[in-house]
Amino acid sequence: MSVHPGRAAQRSRTVELGMPTVASDPHRHLRGTESFPAAAHKALADTQLRRNLGHATRTIRAKRAGVVSEVDDWEELRRAGEAIKADTMARLPELLVELESQVTARGGVVHWARDAEEANRIVVDLVRGTGADEVVKVKSMATQETGLNEALEGAGIAALETDLAELIVQLSHDRPSHFLVPAIHRNRAEIREIFLREMPDVDPSLTDEPRRLAMAARAHLRRKFLAAKVGISGVNFAVADTGTISVVESEGNGRMCLTLPETLITVMGVEKLVPTWADLEVFLQLLPRSSTGERMNPYTSTWTGVTPGDGPQAFHLVLLDNGRSNVLADRDGRQALHCIRCSACLNVCPVYERTGGHAYGSIYPGPIGAVLSPQLTGIDGPDDVNASLPYASSLCGACFDACPVRIDIPNLLVQQRAAAVDAHTRPTGQDVAMQAAAIAMTTPGRFKLAERALGVGRVLAGRKGRITSLPWPASGWTNARDLPAPPAETFRQWWARTHGGD
Amino acid sequence: MDVAREEVLARLRSARDAGAPPTPVVVPRKYRPAGRYAPGSAQAVARLDETLTDYRATVTRVGSEADVAAAVAAFLGSASGIVVPPGLPAEWLAGFVGEVHRDTPPLTVDALDHLDAVVTGAAVAIADTGTFVLDSGSPDQGRRVITLVPDHHVCVIRAADVVCSVPEAIARLDPTRPLTFVSGPSATSDIELDRVEGVHGPRRLDVVLVGALTRS
After folding, report:
1. CATH number assigned to the domain comprising residue B167
2. Between chains, do A298 and B4 touch, taking CB under 8 Å as contact?
């Protein structure tokens, strides 16, 4: 094979350009419009939301604890899962090339996408090439991240979400708020109302019994599945040494999308890789128990390229960077790429349980989202809303204990806070306060003067004894927390009064 | 040349090196490679019975292959038309009086949608999790679509194919064939995180377990 000189030059230039790069976010799915404290304030005022989330997360925590306690080698599985992912990241480019060659050898076509727009463009072109104007989709975080549905709609192609919760989100023109159950913020009565309003052929006597609601979704989607020409999926695990792709699901909508269409397009973040087929023996134990709290989810499908006579006869795999190289470049931060999207850390997080997922702005919410989103997007200075995400935590550590691959989320949150501080180009309230404290604490005389100022705080606090709002720079603190009123007397003042002088 | 491919790989190579761990990663595989009970043992089959039942499959235990036909016929009841994979043993259907469609030549999706049930074998079953695996390359399991479109699935599992743990099952499977791991009838946890059985896949799942009956 001869290489055209111009092409060789282009190759060397692009290799030089190959620096880790943050995500493109054309449809703002990785950044909200306001900071976490501002969004959380609104979420906390929604009592229905808090009831729905409290009920759902309590249910899932109990189920998870039950099935995890059945497995006496759970800690050994977690350690293996952690190391397999760390090993994958240390060899990611080589393993991706291996995956590509295995998929290609078995009749699949592999595409590479640098960012969200490129992935969307590849998928839109592939769908156009089939002549289809409608696609059925299995729930996929990667295509939510890129805003694929919007891109398809822009090209005149209808994208039909088939996962029940994703369907609820799509029908109600809402945003997902959880990895596993994007409509976790909705209760059964709200879901019934959405179905009655948005499903054209729904039985008007529909009740809010979950079984009846599931049947309504079945009826709504059945003809669409049986007639579908193109299916679009994400990936749970891709196996480098065999080229095998797996999708883990419950309802059978995944099987429908993976089996019935003539063409299957699968979009995969490059981190969804494991080196060998045998590695699935670890993750197929860790994921279902951590995720839905089941010993095993109802359906897991695996396939390798194209199988003549069975399932889609055209298979396209789109490998997506979109900021992952930026995360990989950080020795500690790359742990966020180990995430298998089980959502256990969301379900145990005291902050997530109260605010829900929308407050995080990004489609990756909860503790893992708070470290993944700012690393994918990078932080554009102090006003970037994603700079507020690493503070959406009390650092209680429950997320680490629940994580099936032992991601040290509390440590990553602290590191991301440091990164957020580094992104400041002018001093923040916190910087000013710390500098002031340093000056005040250097000499006893200054400290004494500062203590007198505390009396002002008692006036601000008023009779309720809480300070809820302070001017900048102290607003940085009071936006998210109340301050107790300072005591009537400091320790030093008490000492002076009861022991006579300094 | 694929510019995007080269660019993504170049970015990932520099990122891999920039964030490389100080020492090479060693994967500690100290988890159990095998389950508590031996493959095919009476205890493994009894545990599979429990875990299948726990996730709302209905299980019938029979002592030998000769008893399969009666159990299958009982599960199929008044079904009028069923589909079976090309290589399903004919003896398993000896007690069924309705119409049997062998999937050869392959049935259309519409034809499958009008049939009441499907009967298959399984490649392997996992006692710890209540799972069986369908290997679409296997003559008694067949194309994936035949176990998906009909609303009722009857699966015959031989004791010799029952293992206790997930690692034992993974080791027995051929990843180059399309595989479907099935654990109970289709279900959803999407409404308030409560499990509800029966969505898009078969809503009714029945299992005939053959052999390794425990002596009482």
Report:
1. 3.40.50.10420
2. no
